[in-house]
């Protein structure tokens, strides 16, 4: 058994504990996430309306492009409404909890 080989080992380094985010940081991140999501939904709605206007003016002849944009905006809006409804239900459930 070679004892000299043990002296060549690298010392063990313990990782620094990860700093947990504060409630204010989490709230800010969630708020920015919701703001970005609503912005994307609004952008899809605006894009769909613009394509519909261009289609009505005869600038666009591709109905598929218009249909896809309309369905995309519709699905995004439905998802947003479902998330909103779940958030309201959660808030109401918290308010009903006894103290």
TrEMBL record:
One of its GO terms (biological process) is bacterial-type flagellum-dependent cell motility. Pfam families: FliE. The keyword Transport does not apply. GO terms for cellular component: bacterial-type flagellum basal body. Coiled coil: none annotated. Its main location: other. One of its GO terms (molecular function) is cytoskeletal motor activity. It is found in: Bacterial flagellum basal body. InterPro entries: FliE. This is Flagellar hook-basal body complex protein FliE. It comes from Brevibacillus agri. The lineage of its organism: Bacteria, Bacillati, Bacillota, Bacilli, Bacillales. The gene is fliE.
């Amino acid at each position: 058994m070679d004892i000299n080989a043990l002296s060549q080992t690298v010392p063990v380094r313990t990782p620094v504990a990860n700093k947990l985010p504060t409630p204010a940081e989490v709230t800010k991140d969630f708020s920015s996430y919701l703001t970005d999501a609503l912005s994307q939904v609004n952008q899809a709605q605006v894009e769909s309306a613009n394509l519909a206007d261009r289609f009505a003016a005869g600038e666009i002849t591709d109905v598929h492009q218009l249909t896809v944009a309309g369905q995309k905006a519709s699905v995004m809006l439905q998802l947003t409404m479902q998330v909103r409804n779940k958030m309201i239900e959660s808030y109401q459930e918290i308010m009903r909890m006894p103290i």
